[in-house]
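Dig into what follows:
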Amino acid sequence: MQNKNFKSAVLFEQKKKIKIIDLKKPAKLERGQVLVRIISAAICGAQIGEIDGIKGKDKWLPHCMGHEGYGKVIRKNKFVKNLKNNDYVIMHWRKGAGINAVSAKYESDHGIINAGQVTTFQEYAVVSENRLTKIKPKKKLFKLLPLLGCAIPTSWGLLINEAKIKKEDSLLIFGAGGLGVSTALIAKILGCKRIVLVDKFILKQKLTKGLGIKFYEFKKFRKYVKNFFSIVIDTTGSTDVISKGFTYTAKNGKLILVGQPKKYSELKIFDPIRLFNPPNDNIKIFSSDGGLFQPDLHMNIIYNLLIKNHKKFNKLITNTIGLKDINKGIDLIKKGKEIRVCIDLKK
C-alpha cells in the first residue's frame, strides 16, 4: 500500500494491443467498493471478443480488463459487511451477495481510466462487493483459483442448471478453449460417457490429451462423426459452427450457445422445421446465461469439485505469464496454442 501507483493492462483502442500503464490507487472507496490486491488472473475469450469489438463500438474506452481472478482484500468501504481486510476472495462477473457498487474510475497520466464492477488484469483493483466471494486460500492452487470466477462455474452451471445433463446424454462441444475444455472435463467427472470436443486448431489435441475426451479437428470431424448428440454446445460464437451444430442435434435435443456471435453476423439453419413440436424434432436452441451461476449458492460446491479434481483441472492452465506479457498471452490463445493462460501478478 505504500506505493500509490500500480500497473494495469488497459484497452485504449479496439483491435489494438493492450497497454500496461500506471494507475493511481484511490484515496477514498465509494459505498460498496473493495480494494483487492490481485494474486492471479486468467485470460478469458470474452476479453479477446472485447478487443476485437464483436459487440460493436466500445463507449467506455479507455478501460481496464479481465473478469476472473483471485486476490486478497486490502481495504474496504465501511458499508461492506460480507468481507473484511485480509480475506481471500474469488473475483467474478456474476452478481453475488452485497452492494452493487458504482464502477471504478482511476486517475492516470493518460486521463481517467474506466473500469466495471470487476477487473483483474492489474496489480490492484477496486471491486464491487457483490463481485467478490470469500474462500479459504489454497496457495498451491493459485493458478487455478481465477477459473472459479468464470470458466469453471459457467461450465458447471451450463451442464447442471441449463442443460440439466444426465449420465446417458451424449455431448458435442465446439471450441477447446477454457470454457469448452472445462465443460467437457466436468461432464466427464459427472459420469457422461460420450463426449466429443471439436476445435479448428489441431494443436488443441495435444493440450487435451490425458483427459479421456475424444478430440477432432473441425475440418475433419464430419468425416468421422456421423451420430447425433442430445446436447450440443457452441463456445466459439462462429455462426458457421452454430449452423453445423444444429445439424448434429438429436431429436428433442438442445443446442446451447455460449460464445457470442459478432454483431450483425448472419446465422443460417438447414431444415428449421426441426425446431417445432412432435411429430417433428422439437429441438431447443437457447443462449447460456452464465450457467445461472449464483456465487452465494454455488461457489462452495464448485470449489470442492475443483479441490477433489485439481490434478485434472490443472490441464486447463497451459501457460503462466506476468502482466507485462499480457499481449503475448492473448496472441497465444488467438493462435490456438493455449487453453487458458494464467497471469501471475506476483511476477
Observations:
- The chain is about 25% helix and 25% strand.
